[in-house]
Design a protein that fits this description.
Length: about 190
């Protein structure tokens, strides 16, 4: 998917990203054991970075800066330079995520919720990773899985769970485990 041509507009980039996402989803659904070893070439692809940037800049949190002091909405004309630098660092394996800015938000109960605010560059890379990984993992989810999925909310699970509660477990379609597992080692002692 690497085009080598960073000169295209957002609409074309979104089209390219959507086309690749459909392929990734189709491949993942057709072969649950398939490994996607070339993910890095998609994350540093100019189209993926441009779409990721548009999502980060359009996000409600774009007015808030991380430890770098740069809010995504304030970048303006420097966006092209930011994306080129990110692409170079990702391709050269030089990208290192920065620490997050911590903000304490008081809750109604009197407790405090800690919020981590990544730097602008880290947000763009996270968004690009999401664009690549989401269609791959989405293929493994069951239709009855609602949390943290596109166009689904955990609140929608309540009516669905009421319906499923009356079906035998073997027919509910929610008993299969995902076939793609994170390649991280457990930190819990045996």
């Amino acid at each position: 998917m690497n085009t080598g041509d960073p000169e295209f507009d957002l609409a074309e980039a979104e089209f390219r990203v959507l086309r690749m996402q459909k392929k990734l989803h189709r491949w993942a659904a057709a072969d649950p054991g398939r490994r996607f070893d070339d993910r890095a070439n998609l994350v540093d692809d100019p189209a993926f970075l441009l779409v990721a940037w548009a999502r980060v800049r359009g996000n409600k949190g774009a007015r808030t800066a991380g430890v770098d002091g740069i809010a995504p909405r304030s970048v303006g004309l420097g966006a092209e330079e930011l994306l080129e630098r990110l692409r170079h660092d990702l391709k050269a394996n030089l990208f290192i995520p920065q620490r997050v800015r911590e903000k304490a938000i008081p809750k109604a109960s009197g407790k405090i919720r800690r919020l981590g605010i990544p730097t602008t560059a880290d947000r763009v890379v996270q968004a690009a990773l999401k664009l690549v990984l989401e269609p791959i993992f989405e293929a493994d989810f069951q239709p009855c899985s609602y949390g943290f999925r596109p166009k689904r909310r955990a609140q929608d699970a309540t009516p669905r769970s009421t319906t499923l509660r009356h079906l035998p477990a073997t027919t509910s379609g929610c008993t299969r485990r995902t076939s793609r597992h994170a390649s991280t080692k457990s930190t819990t002692p045996p």
